[in-house]
């Protein structure tokens, strides 16, 4: 059976691997010159390792990606326990990695800290419950932890990630974030692009055709088959962002289905990567910005996690945002964005660092808005069009986007295709 996979990110590559092992003929179409999607990396001239365009790490309980790496014989994933912390309104940084850290946190009273700790433990141990989809995170956290805890610990984190949508995000989101988080974090020796390149080599050994630098502008339907690039395919699996898929599938899907998918709201990811002579953050790897005084969602000092020797002995830091396209930061030129953040970084850093290089990257539709409307409109594997399937990062709900769930989606859609078609031609 001839299968076209739209998108060469982690989901597309995983799907291709699983189905190629079932003897299907697979072609992967990737718009960018380098496969890997949001996990893809680049190398500066004097770097030994790739660096992701958008910050990535694994959690210790990311079973799907760890099992997949083991299956394909990739042995370069390692784990460390870097420091994470948050910057608050008093411009002080506090660690909140453990119950002891919470008890030492000076901005809450002891009853508030105990109540917060109990609810976090409950979320960590709780299975997914229907009540998480019946209220917003804001309502749940204010009700269970208290209004003051919401104002100090959570409000700005939600504003940083979801902007104007912060108050309507379902409680299922905070459940999933607490449930998944581990202190031990994983990374790939050589950067995640090393894993991606290894996977592509495996695909080629299985006779998978991986086409890069190829943007699909139209899909034609012929009976229950599809024409892409003048080739007829029995099955199409789209891993593309939903708005990109709807744009190229106007003649494929019913109007009411396209309308449903178009109702999903998104924010877009913007990352600014700074290469400096001294670190912006002393020992902290991940700094949440929990104050409106600093209009940055977070600072990730990558080289407090991964040795700077891999990047020409320069310190690497990410600054991140999720934004609407009309946000002025999204519209800024790269140099303008750099100038915008400099004064804020001086308020945070204890070092007189010099920026030797910088890179800015944008990713459209990176963050779906997990509200009640999302539940009504999110895509599923099976579409109204026979033999056309979807497996994209909207479907990782309630978990946040990430490599582990990209792999999981690839495995799940592959199992579905095998169950529906087996090895029999249509």
Q: Kindly report how far apart the N and C termini lie.
A: 7 Å
- Name the CATH superfamily classification of the largest domain: FAD/NAD(P)-binding domain
* CATH architecture designation of the largest domain: 3-Layer(bba) Sandwich
Strand content: 15-25%
> How many beta-strand elements?
20
Radius of gyration: 22 Å
> Helix proportion of residues, in percent?
25-40%
Write the layout of secondary structure elements.
Layout (H helix, E strand, L loop, with lengths): L1 E5 L3 H11 L4 E5 L11 E2 L8 E2 L5 E2 L3 H10 L4 E4 L2 E5 L5 E2 L4 H6 L5 H16 L11 H8 L2 H16 L8 H10 L4 E4 L3 H14 L3 E3 L8 E3 L2 E4 L2 E3 L1 E4 L3 H7 L6 H8 L3 E11 L7 E6 L8 E4 L13 E9 L4 H4 L2 H15 L6 E14 L3 H6 L10 E3 L12 H19 L5
Parallel strand pairs: 1-2, 1-14, 2-10, 7-16, 14-20
Antiparallel strand pairs: 3-4, 5-9, 6-9, 7-8, 11-12, 12-13, 15-18, 15-19, 16-17, 17-18
Helix pairs in contact: 1-8, 1-14, 2-14, 4-7, 5-6, 5-7
Short description:
This protein has helices spanning 10-20, 63-72, 99-104, 110-125, 137-144, 147-162, 171-180, 192-205, 242-248, 255-262, 328-331, 334-348, 372-377, 403-421, and strands at 2-6, 25-29, 41-42, 51-52, 58-59, 77-80, 83-87, 93-94, 185-188, 209-211, 220-222, 225-228, 231-233, 235-238, 266-276, 284-289, 298-301, 315-323, 355-368, 388-390. With 426 residues, the protein is of the alpha/beta class.
Short descriptors:
alpha/beta; FAD/NAD(P)-binding domain; Polyamine Oxidase, Chain A, domain 2; 14 helices; 35% helix; 22% strand
Describe the structure.
The chain folds into three domains: 2-70 and 189-265 and 370-421, 3-Layer(bba) Sandwich (FAD/NAD(P)-binding domain), CATH 3.50.50; 98-178, no CATH class; 266-368, Polyamine Oxidase, Chain A, domain 2, CATH 3.90.660. With 426 residues, it is α/β, with parallel strands linked by helices. The strands form five sheets. The chain has a seven-stranded mixed sheet. Strands 10-2-1-14-20 form a five-stranded parallel sheet. Strands 5-9-6 form a three-stranded antiparallel sheet. The longest helix has 19 residues, at 403-421. The protein is globular, with a radius of gyration of 22 Å. The protein has helices at residues 10-20, 63-72, 99-104, 110-125, 137-144, 147-162, 171-180, 192-205, 242-248, 255-262, 328-331, 334-348, 372-377, 403-421; strands at 2-6, 25-29, 41-42, 51-52, 58-59, 77-80, 83-87, 93-94, 185-188, 209-211, 220-222, 225-228, 231-233, 235-238, 266-276, 284-289, 298-301, 315-323, 355-368, 388-390. The protein is built from 14 helices and 20 strands. A hairpin with a 2-residue loop joins strand 12 (225-228) and strand 13 (231-233). The mean pLDDT is 96. Helix content is 35%, strand content 22%. Helix 1 (10-20) runs parallel beside helix 14 (403-421), helix 2 crosses helix 14 (403-421) and helix 4 packs across helix 7 (171-180).
């Amino acid at each position: 059976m001839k299968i076209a996979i739209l998108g060469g990110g982690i989901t597309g590559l995983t799907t291709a691997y699983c189905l190629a092992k079932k003897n299907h003929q697979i072609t992967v179409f990737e718009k960018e010159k380098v496969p890997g999607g949001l996990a893809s990396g680049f190398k500066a001239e004097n770097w030994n390792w790739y660096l992701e365009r958008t910050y990535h790490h694994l959690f210790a309980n990311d079973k799907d990606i760890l099992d997949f790496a083991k299956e394909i014989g990739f042995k370069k994933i390692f784990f460390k326990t870097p420091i994470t912390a948050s910057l608050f309104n008093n411009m002080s940084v506090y660690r909140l990695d453990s119950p002891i850290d919470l008890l030492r946190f000076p901005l809450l009273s002891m009853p508030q800290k105990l109540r917060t700790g109990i609810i976090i433990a409950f979320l960590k141990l709780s299975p997914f419950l229907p009540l998480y989809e019946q209220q917003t995170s804001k309502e749940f956290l204010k009700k269970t932890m208290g209004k003051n805890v919401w104002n100090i610990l959570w409000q700005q984190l939600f504003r940083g990630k979801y902007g104007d949508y912060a108050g309507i995000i379902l409680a299922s989101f905070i459940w999933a974030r607490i449930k998944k988080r581990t202190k031990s974090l994983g990374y790939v020796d050589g950067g995640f692009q090393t894993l991606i390149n290894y996977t592509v080599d495996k695909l080629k050994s299985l006779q998978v055709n991986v086409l890069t630098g190829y943007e699909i502008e139209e899909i034609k339907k012929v009976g229950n088959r599809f024409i892409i690039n003048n080739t007829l395919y029995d099955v199409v699996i789209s891993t593309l962002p939903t708005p990109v898929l709807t744009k190229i599938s106007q003649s494929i899907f019913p109007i009411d289905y396209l309308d449903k998918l178009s109702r999903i709201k998104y924010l877009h990811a913007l990352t600014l990567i700074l290469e400096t002579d001294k670190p912006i953050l002393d020992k902290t790897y991940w700094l949440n910005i929990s104050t409106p005084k600093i209009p940055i969602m977070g600072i990730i000092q990558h080289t407090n996690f991964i040795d700077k020797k891999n990047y020409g002995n320069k310190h690497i830091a990410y600054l991140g945002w999720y934004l609407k396209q009309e946000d002025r930061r999204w519209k800024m030129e790269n140099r303008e964005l750099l100038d915008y953040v400099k004064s804020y970084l001086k308020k945070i850093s204890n070092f007189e660092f010099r920026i030797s290089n910088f890179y800015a990257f944008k990713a459209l539709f990176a963050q779906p808005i997990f509200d009640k409307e999302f539940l009504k409109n999110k895509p599923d594997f099976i579409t109204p069009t026979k033999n056309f399937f979807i497996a994209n990062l909207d479907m990782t709900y309630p978990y946040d986007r990430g490599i582990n769930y990209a792999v999981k989606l690839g495995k799940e859609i592959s199992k579905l295709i095998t169950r529906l078609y087996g090895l029999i031609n249509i």
